[in-house]
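Section: Multi-chain targets

For targets with more than one molecule, the full set of components is provided together so that the structure can be written out for the assembly as a whole rather than chain by chain. Components appear in the order listed by the source. The example entry contains two components.
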Amino acid sequence: MLSVFLEVLRRDLLLAWRNRADVLVTLSFFTIVACLFPFGVGAEPNLLRTIAPGVLWVAALLATLLSLHRVFSQDHTDGVLEQLLLSPEPPVLWVLAKVLAHWLTTAVPLVIAAPALALLFDMTQSATGVLILSLLLGTPILSLLGGVGAALTLGLRGGGMLLALLVLPLFVPILIFGAGAVDAYLSGTGANAHLMLLGGGSLAALALAPWACAAALRIAVE
Amino acid sequence: MESGQRFSLFRYAAPNVFYPLAGRLAPWFAAAAVGFTLIGLYLGFFVAPTDAVQGEVYRVIFIHVPAAWMSMFIYLIMAFWSAIGVVFNTRLSAMMTQALAPTGAMFCFVALWTGALWGRPTWGAYWVWDARLTSQLLLLFLYFGFMALTRAIEDPRRADKAGAILALVGAVNVPIIYFSVKWWNTLHQGASVSLTKAPSMATTMLMAMLVMALASWAYTIAVVLWRVRSLILERERHTDWVGEVLDAKGAQA
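Its structure, encoded as tokens over all components, is:
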């Protein structure tokens, strides 16, 4: 059973490696969106420092959203998805592997790039540390919930916009706790509560989302 | 014996049995909605006393509060029908879900709109990022997402099932969204005006509000029954019984 998980994970990571440009595009998108804000609101350092956590989280949210179509769409067009569903292996396992591959190829690069962007916004080192931690704990929820959305909109016309409408309202709590963690740390109340809620949310999404995702995939392929 | 009970329980789950029943019930609920609305608005606008603090402007609550209640409740009912549809694989429950969504979105919008009209004279702003307002706005987006998804899928069976999953995922998230927004709001700014700490309400005000709530229930049921009838006709148009129904209508006209 574990071998299916590992095999699908290995395959998806290999595919991502062969199409590394996609990952780079997501990363560039993340950077550019974050860099747009100073042009919009002005380059006043205090203001930038205040909005930095929110801006980076919104940019991460949008970058994840735009990369979600990669989770299933290629497998859907070339028929791999159908074969996986026909196989006797439990779908939850390989769905989880695919979502994990998405997280590793999308969220982890964002987390690595985030400190550099935090420098542009003049965030302190310790605040950057909290931001990274909140991204690490929160982005799994984005990939998991986003996976459900991607499965529901698989192969639909106007799928991208529709996907945004479906998942962005659901992402709001993650944005609140993610950006809130840094704010709470800076205000001195401590980020523990926010980080724990993000971690708890990740675990809950880990337990529930793959089932919804597998059900949605069955419907999409039917 | 047991098969007989099952038969009666699921009897009205068959579209061709439910269709005439919905047609018989809908006018009654529509009449009840009109009656309750007239009584409620009369009580609210002419009988209920003027509020000591807010003046006449408070009277918008007779539309606002029932609309807000209804918008939240309809999402729950949608999740309920979705769960039934997923478990028992009944076609009618998905049709009910899809018939409910536009009404829920409408009530959501009415609640936001009347809230803005009330907020301007009371808070001095059409919109504040209050927890209730924000979660209501997100609920409107959830309704829009549901409607957009079910409309975007051409195959009705797939639309039904995908909509059911989305409604259930949304229903799990609604309390999370509400409490996160509430927490976010209290961290950023104190609540502008607390509705929960409002001075105890005069009995006539409460009565008017409850009558209006009944009116919105009756309205929702009537509209949903009519919408479900259209959906049934559309989905079952290839069957014989729909042909007979339409022939009978044609003969009447």
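Chain A touches chain B at residues 145, 148, 152-153, 156-159, 162, 165-166, 168-170, 172-173, 176-177, 180, 183-184, 201, 208, 212, 215-216, 219-220, 222 (CB under 8 Å).
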